[in-house]
Amino acid sequence: MAVSGVCQSILNARQTKDDYGSLEAPEKFLNQDYQQLKQYCLIRKVRFIDDMFPPDRRSIDPTIPSTLDLSKVVWCRPQKIVPNPAFVVDGISRFDFGQGDLGNCWFLASIGSLTFQKQILAQVVPMEQQFDDSYCGLFHFRFWRFGRWVDVVIDDKLPTINGRLIFVHSTDPTEFWPALLEKAYAKVCGSYSDMNAGTPAEALVDFTGGVHISLQLNSPPPDLWEVMCRAGRSISMMGCGTLPGVTISNQ
Q: Which of 85, 94, 168, 217 is deepest in the core (most CB within 10 A)?
């Protein structure tokens, strides 16, 4: 859970302690300035390629435990995948996306929770981004990392095999915000492989800058239902998950 009750005052204090690193003036991740890069690309009529998170197997990490044949991966911009790509199609909801060949269900569960909080969602996912006349293959997202908000720049080259996205993909093949958000988070983590296994609490904190409470359901507190009801009334974000290897038969 994140951003509940009195925790909101903590969140506000963190964001207003100083200007740099706030939502209004986020830190430029790896010193990449979104506006400067966009202006450069538009003036020169080129599409952005991110040398800091290159569209090749280094950004996936060859050590990733997967059935993927990385030699078959081709990095494609959305226009090479579908004729008319869009950033968002008919709004954003938790039903927009599905998991790919990566163990980051914890991240997707957190995105699902994020879709219920449109104001926070807009802080993480700037909604003005489109595939229009201002498009130059450049996108950006914001995360809370180590006490500051950071603005993370990416190019829109996405890993595919046979023309299909291999990681997060939208249920509408023309919609790309889920895959681009995942790529930005992978960049912050270090690689796609570094997203393999985690907890919803990690991503919820990175989405909000708030604090979280984690509860173990194999030894739940006696007032678990009341805790959840309080969280719901305070419009907290909640998520749940299972530990690796845990099944119904062995839990």
A: 168
Measured between alpha carbons, how far is 204 from 183 in angstroms, rounded to an integer?
Answer: 17
Residue 25 lies in a domain: yes
Q: At which residue do the structure tokens 């964001």 appear?
A: 15
**Cα–chain-centroid distance for residue 12?**
22
- For the chain, how many structural domains are there in total? 1
Name which of 64, 153, 112, 92 is nearest 240 in CA terms. Answer: 112
* Selection from 22, 5, 19 nearest residue 147 by Cα: 22
Phi, psi angle pair for 67, to nearest 5° = -85, 5
- Rounded Cα–Cα distance for residues 212 and 113 (Å): 14
What is the domain range of residue 42?
Answer: 7-233
pLDDT tens, residue by residue, 97-150: 888 888 788 888 888 888 888 888 999 999 999 999 999 999 999 999 888 999
**β-strand partners of 149:** 144
Q: Is residue 251 part of a domain?
A: no
The pTM is what?
0.84
172 located within any domain: yes
Catalytic residue among 105, 189, 229, 240: 105
> Residue 247 falls within a domain, yes or no?
no
Indicate if 105 belongs to the active site.
yes
